[in-house]
Structures are given as structure tokens and as C-alpha cells.
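=== RUN LOG ===
request id: a7f3
mode: sequence -> structure
chains: 1
length: 504
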Amino acid sequence: MSRLEEISDVKTLQQVASHLEKTTIRQSKKIARLRAENARLKGEHADPQMELQLLKEQLASMQREIFSESSERTPREMKPSDNEPTQPRRGHGPKSQPNLPVEEVKHTLEEEDRTCPICGETLTEMGDQAEESEEVTVVGVEYKVLKHRRQKYRCQCNEQVMTAPGPAKHIPGGRYSVDFAVHVAEQKYLDPLPLERQVTAMSRACLETTSQTLWDQINVLARILEPTYRALCKIVLEQGMVYADETYWRNHENSSTSKWWTWCVATDDIATYRILNSRSQKAAKKVLSGFEGVAMTDGYTAYQSLARSSPNLHLAHCWAHVRRKFLEAADFDRELSEQATGLINKLFEIEREVPRAGPDATGDEKERILELRLRLRQEKSKPVIKNLLEWGGKHDGAILPRSKLGKAISYMLKLWRGLTLFLEDPRIPLDNNAAERALRGVVVGRKNHYGSKSKRGTEVAAIFYTLFETAKLSGIDNPRAYVTLAAKRAITDHGAVTLPSDLT
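=== RESULT ===
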């Protein structure tokens, strides 16, 4: 039975027939062109066998096109007609790469292969006719030595001699460029590739260097970029709403490994980091020094202690952490755990009803979204919160306090004020995912290059993590371009501060 006989749906048959008709017309025109080309090459008395073989090849090509893999789909998968809206399919087919440069490579037959297997005559090129395809490839990283010739000039009086300026240098008289130093920093803190592995990769590209040399480059570069780093840290603390979180870090100074902590304070478009040797309230105070507003955190006690001594610091707490604790308590009592997580999930479902402000949204549009979110929370989220409080109060004393479920209930009730602050302030999200996402790069870097070898190493890491992550959050497609611009500006104009907005 043929493929057409297997199809019983009338609409599908119509679609197939239309496709066949269009393909036949297209192929007929192609055959006519090939016949004309063949007659021109062979003359009016062209070999009938040659022409027959050509026609057979064209017929086979047409059949392949008509009954290709894409045509062997069920009726539901068939392409809709022209008057029906089409929906893009995700995860299928090659992705377009409009930002990549295109290089054309011409493939020709070798001289010994340009013989017709049928008649033995020499094959000739068919004008500009060719089959085209695309592939994405990689061109290895290339390192070059740029020899700068700074032209000298003199006046006819021989009294004045001037020399053309050279490129900006982060190390005066140094052998490596600013671009090279930024490249090393990007690989270590953004990719993340330890310096030793970079040395190995560079050696394969014919550049011989050492990890100490690479460290010297990024260490000096970090000093140049420090004013920009401090400016970003200051800006983030001037906002009314921030996210805060921390994760451990390793410092291998003096051949001994000690546990340090990476503290992150972030907004929607800025992420700043400080790596300190403590996770105490004193460290939290140092990180949030001068901040007045709402800080979204988990239930870590250092934040709570700091808030009690800072009347202008208000803590909002993360519902995702609460939900996680109830999920972990399912082994103790699945039914009660599911009751709690079900109510918490409703809160997140309500949040999804509010549209998100796009990157080009105006101030008025953002304000309208905030008003809508506040109204929705008062109308829909507040009753869910009331049910959660009643549920927690009902089971608080009835569950073993040291069980996972008992601890989850206690955790929720203890942080209740911070968990419900979002009902009053539409800027406050339900979770602290923004800070957790900002720390992912730090966690991966910690696993790859095992932390820092000195206190200075922690400072350098904090600077570059801040600059690269902030560039990403600000929508800069190429964070290296931002860091390079900031470095060169700071060199030519000592201490100059460059913000991501200077590139957007």
C-alpha cells in the first residue's frame, strides 16, 4: 500500500495534493532548465541515454522531496494551510545563528573525478548551480604579538619632537594587553576555567606563559576596576529593595584551608559580592552597612539579629524555603505536608496571573503592574495566607516539635511577619531566587578552581564576579565588552567609573 493510500483524512489529502502540485511545477521547471543546459552542452544530437539518466535522477530527487521524512507525519503534524496561523516549534531543527559571521566554502570535484560514469566524457561546471548547506564550526583561539610602532614627529626648528600615543596599558611597559587580561578574568570567573587549565589551553595555541603571569594580569586589572566595583556596591545599597544570600568559599592562604563566605546583595539588574571570613551578624552588618529598606532573605539568624538592631531594615522572607521544608517533611506525614505545600503553591499560582514588565517597559507601565499585583494579592493571596496561619496554629502543638514537620511549622510561624510583608509591598517577590541565581556562578567557580589562595584572591574574585554578573543582569550580551570598556576608561581617566548603562 502506498503512503497516499494510507491517508484517509480528506483535509490531509488536500494538503498533500496541493504540496504535490506545487512540487511538480517546481520540478518541471527545473527539468526544463536542465534539458536546455544539456542540449547546449551536447548539441542538438544529445545522447538519448544521457538525457534519460538525467531525467531518472530528477524524478528520484522529486520523489525524495515529496515523500521525505517531513512528509511522513500524522495528520495532526501536517503543516497547516496558508490561512491558518502557524506556531513555532521548540526543540526541533537547527537554530538560526544570525549573529555569527558567514564564510562561504566552495567544494569542487578533483580533476580525476570529473568524468561521466556513463559516457566517459568530461564533466563541466553548471554555471552557478550548486547545492548549499550550513554548519556551525569553531575556529581556535588565536593569540598574536602586536608590534606597535609609535611614529615620531618633529618640527622644522628641531626643537620639538612628539611621539604618537600607544594603546592603554594596565601594566606600564607590560607585554600583555588589557584585552588579554580581561580574557583571562572572563575565563576564570565567568566560564569558569582555573588559571592552570588556561595555561595548558594557551600552550596548545602556541602561547607559552605561567599561571603566576596570568594572576599578575588580573590582579592589576582588579585594582584598576575597583572604583567601578565600589560604585556598584554603593548603588545597590541605595535601593529600597534588595536580595541577600550567602554561600561558603574556600581560602587556601598559608597552605591551610579555611571556610570563608561569599555574601551577595543584588537587585534585578545589579549583583554585588563580598567574600569575608565570617558568617556572623558582624559580617552581615558589614555587607548591608547603610542599607535602609526591605531585604529579601532566608531565615538565617544573622539577618534577624541585624534587623532587630537596625530600625530601618525590614526583612522579607522566602516562601520557597518554607515550601522546601514541608516537602522534606513528607516522609513524616505526607497528608499534612501536602496540605501546606498545596496552600503555598496557590500563592505562586496567583503571582503568575500578573504580567511581568518587559525590558522596554516605561515607568507608568511598571507602576500599573505594581498596582495590579498589590490588588491581586489583597483579593486572592490574603485569604490563602489566612488559611495557612490557621492551619499552622492548629497543628503547631499537635506535631512533634523535633520532627521535620514540626520544624517546618515552627520555621514558618517564626518568620511569619517577613513571610507576609509581600501583601503590603508589591515590589517584594515570594522567593529569594534572584540572589540564589546570582550565586550559581560563584558555586560553580568554587567547585572548579577550589576558591582562592589568599585574602587578595577573595577581593579579586568579588570584583570580577560583581562586574560580570551585573553586566549579564543588565542585558549586556557580551560582558567582556563592558569590563574591557570600564578598564580602558579607568586607565586613560584615572579612577573613572563605568556603569552597565554606558553600554546599553
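=== NOTES ===
The chain is about 50% helix and 10% strand.
The two ends are 61 Å apart (CA to CA).
=== END ===
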